[in-house]
Design brief:
The protein is built from nine helices and twelve strands. With 356 residues, it is of the alpha+beta class. It folds into two domains: 119 residues, Gcn5-related N-acetyltransferase (GNAT) (Aminopeptidase, 3-Layer(aba) Sandwich); 201 residues, Aminopeptidase, CATH 3.40.630.
């Protein structure tokens, strides 16, 4: 079924920005809402939207400067990849330019973006020997090439907890937890971005697909998916050493729609159960001051014990299209009767690597 393509309207803005963010088209130094407003005020530009029977599927910003045509924000909803919508929305943009008498169009892509380069090559676009130069009329934000400092707490468990095996809460819903094969990059991004978006999970969000695929396929990694009534609800990612004596709880969490249903404690206890094997002597995890305020307390309640702290420098979350992180003094772990972090965390050995 071909796309229904039309120009953007007032009620479309929020879903357009959501698609751009899902397709990783936004960058921290450009406000997508301002880009939309500016485009709509410009008589020689427009934003075309493509809809299928489930909603917004593709977008392109197209315009000209009196001589050449340009494209920006060419994107397809990640759920619709493989349907040919990228080709359709580009054909609509080309037709828009041809109708206005534009004789040539061009675009800019990063030279390392082989996947996008190949897409445009299939549409007949060719590389030209040109040097791109630019001049800013507004200063770049100070954080554009900055980093974020976070305090990481390393925690470990040296013996299996003496308790019954974890059981899902009685809720009348079909709650299942099962091991899955190595997830596709698309499905993993859905889980990783959904679970970690509010807590500034940034490192894998910034990976390209090839790098992420290699990371997901690393030796010792395993994945367990929580579902509720058949819908993905949470993830446990473990990494075992080659001799299986140690297991790291690499990533763990619930998608936002499943928080508050009593699943969090079950999932962390289940993660601990899965991490322990016959040869296991130690499991460990780390949290930081950008994590959920109750993360530290939940790990303590599950039986983990802090053993070290570290100052870690992360890429700025805004480089991945996330919001600005709170200042360091506004972060921190919620006070917990088991572990008064303000005092006790400061006494942990600092394993930070010296800078420089």
């Amino acid at each position: 079924m071909p796309l229904e393509i039309r120009p953007i309207a007032d009620g479309d803005v929020a879903q357009v920005v959501a698609l751009w963010q899902a397709a990783a088209l936004t960058v921290p130094h450009n406000d997508p809402y301002e880009d939309i407003r500016f485009c709509r005020r410009t008589p020689s530009a427009d934003i075309l939207l493509g809809f299928d029977d489930t909603g917004l599927a593709a977008t392109v910003m197209v315009g000209h400067e009196g001589h050449r045509g340009w494209y920006y924000y060419v994107g397809v909803n990640p759920d619709r990849h493989g349907a040919g919508y990228g080709r359709e929305i580009m054909a609509a943009a080309e037709a828009w330019l041809i109708e206005r008498g534009v004789g040539k169009s061009q675009l800019m892509i990063r030279p390392t973006n082989d996947k996008v380069r190949a897409f445009y090559a299939r549409l007949g676009y060719v590389e030209e020997p040109r040097l791109v130069m630019s001049k800013r009329f507004r200063a770049a934000p100070d954080w554009q090439s900055g980093r974020v400092e976070t305090t990481v707490i390393h925690m470990e468990m040296l013996q299996r907890p003496e308790r019954p095996a974890a059981q899902p809460p009685e809720s009348g819903r079909d709650i299942a937890l099962g091991r899955i094969g190595t997830p596709s990059t698309r499905f993993y991004r859905y889980l990783y971005n959904g679970i970690g978006g509010d807590w500034f999970w940034v490192s894998r969000r910034l990976m390209d697909d090839d790098t992420l695929a290699r990371t997901l396929n690393r030796t010792g990694a395993e994945y367990h998916l929580l579902t509720v009534d058949g819908e993905p609800a949470g993830l446990i990612e473990l990494e075992r050493t080659s001799d299986k004596t140690e297991t790291e709880l690499s990533y763990f969490g619930l998608l936002p729609g499943f928080i508050g249903l009593g699943l969090g404690r079950y999932l962390i206890d289940a993660a601990v159960d899965l991490a322990w094997g016959h040869e296991t002597r130690r499991i460990w995890v780390h949290t930081c001051d950008l994590d959920h305020p109750r993360a530290l307390g939940n790990y303590l309640a599950a039986g983990f014990v802090p053993f070290a702290r570290e100052t870690e420098i992360l890429p700025d979350p805004r480089d991945a299209g996330l919001t600005s992180p709170p200042p360091a003094k506004a972060r921190g772990h919620a006070p917990d009767s088991l572990f008064r972090d303000t005092i006790a965390l400061a006494k942990l050995p600092d394993v930070s690597k010296p800078s420089g």
